[in-house]
Amino acid sequence: METSTPLLCERGLLQRADGSAKWVQDGSAVLAAVHGPAAAGPRKENPERAAVEVVFKPRSGLPGSQEHEWEEILRQAVEGVLLASLHPRTLVTVVVQVLSADGALLSCAANAACAALADAGIPLTSLFASVTAAIGAQGDLLLDPDAEEEAAARAVFCLAYPYRHEPAQGGGGGEEGAEAAAAGTPQQQQQQQQQQQQQQLLVVDEGVLTCHSTGRFSPEQLVLAMDACRRACAGVAKFSRMSLLAGFADAVVSSR
């Protein structure tokens, strides 16, 4: 099974936020803003760690039960990677604004939130990527379904996996590479740094960070969806790294 989903990510759009990112995939688009870590109020203050708050705003109207459920899912995902013990008695607020919705909206929001956290420079144990899968009426597995496909699906899964980058062995880094980069022009230094980052190995964890499902499905279908989403998350993670290096990136990323 293959899928190619057009992805777009742009960071640093909001001046009043500590970090922000716009994430677009197919017909869904989300703008996420991160505020903090900032001093928490008495009700939310934790003397040992930072608290996390997520606000999910629909495209129009007031948030409903689904938005509140997604707020909790995203909050748990952020808490799962945030080094909260470094910022006790503080609050990290993630505001998610839906710009357009045509399927896989929760995954789009999760990817936007992760990109905004990276833009804010908040210490994390890892980044994460999210992909949505659906079991069609004929039992076929669809990745990144649109709204019509989601509505007709027997089951829909939204999964997020943590990922990290590890240095590639024999990648030409080390002290010699650092000395060569320092001796060149600023443009050469930037190119050298990008080459070193591109040589890093992308590792997607096997453990699931977030799993949200609706509908009826068998254990075998769940395992199939988890495996397909994990492989697809590798493609999303590669794109996210590319957008971090470029500042702005627009590309088609394959899930293979």
Automatic annotation (TrEMBL):
The UniProt entry lists the main location of this chain as nucleus
Biased composition range(s): Low complexity: 179-194
Q: Which GO terms describe its molecular function?
A: exonuclease activity; RNA binding
Instruction: Write down the superkingdom of origin.
Output: Eukaryota
- Chain positions covered by the region annotation Disordered: 168-194
* Pfam families to which the protein is assigned, alphabetical: RNase_PH
Please state every residue range assigned to the domain named Exoribonuclease phosphorolytic: 6-123
Keyword Chaperone in record? no
Which sequence ranges form a coiled-coil region, renumbered to this chain?
A: none
One GO BP annotation is: rRNA processing
**GO CC, any one term:** cytoplasmic exosome (RNase complex)
Any idea where this protein resides? Nucleus
Q: Where is the signal peptide?
A: none
> Keywords for this entry?
Exonuclease, Exosome, Hydrolase, Nuclease, Nucleus, rRNA processing
Task: Show the InterPro entries listed in the entry.
Answer: ExoRNase_PH_dom1, ExoRNase_PH_dom2_sf, PNPase/RNase_PH_dom_sf, Ribosomal_Su5_D2-typ_SF, RNase_PH
Family label: Belongs to the RNase PH family.
State the protein's name.
Answer: Exosome complex exonuclease RRP46
Q: Which classification does the entry list for the species?
A: Eukaryota, Viridiplantae, Chlorophyta, core chlorophytes, Chlorophyceae
